[in-house]
Amino acid sequence: MPTPGPTPVAPAQIRQDEILTGEAVALDVQPVGFFLRALGLLIDMVTGVALLVVFLLAAGWVAGVGLDLAALSPALTVASLAVVMVVVPTAVETATRGRSLGKLAVGSRIVRVDGGAAGFRHAFIRALTGVLEVWFTLGAVAGIVGAFTPRAQRLGDLLAGTYAERTRAPRLPAPVGGVPAPLADWARVADVTRLPYRVARRAAQFVRTASGLDPAARARTAAAIAADVAPYVSPVPSVDPETLVRAVVAVRRDREYAALVGEQTRVARLTAGVGAAPRGFPER
């Protein structure tokens, strides 16, 4: 009897918002969106213009021409532009590992496409390319390219192999409490499966945000949601509206979690049994 070969394994699929490291580990990261990148770039450009004015004033003072900017020599002007457009951005991003004033404001940093920290080479390529796509075109080229790339990468990012990663993770919602103690026996026999998705979502959202509501608005909202929930709950406990809503949300959450755990357990058992030898045949 021929021995069945190994079960083929489907290739892993990497989504556009995942990063594949050198160890073939997919990292689920959050790139900064187009509008936040544009805002950060605008802040950096305004900072650069202010720094350029300071450099020109300082260069004029050193050259002994006072504040007459028109009398500055072309060499000093070109040197000031090079410092502001290339040297300063490269030095700042290298020293801060991909941060700048604009990126700090929007909560982002520049990293390599594999998720590693960007270095001098990446910062220099981005700054050098930025002279054309940011300064000479007032950000038009950067905006056009960023609008058509998955991670809002500008031309300098594509050449340097970088992108802007989000550093401010959204705050997790407050955990939903369990079933109130007086309703523990009711929770074992309650039927909440007929609750429509729209009503269930509204109830869960209320439970997460109830602590921040005005007491009067909280009571009115709880009463309205409880009126929508009650027709789909059996039996309906004799409690106040907010307690009813909290109990229904907790019961649905616990049962959905138990179902997921049970499904994972069954899948694990089936997977473990695939490699087992059939009864009556020795294992090879």
TrEMBL record:
Keyword Transmembrane helix annotated: yes
Subcellular location: Membrane
Sequence intervals crossing the membrane: 41-63, 69-92
Membrane topology, record value: Multi-pass membrane protein
GO cellular component, one term: membrane
Signal peptide: none
Alphabetical keyword list: Membrane, Transmembrane, Transmembrane helix
Superkingdom assignment: Bacteria
The protein, known as: Predicted membrane protein/domain
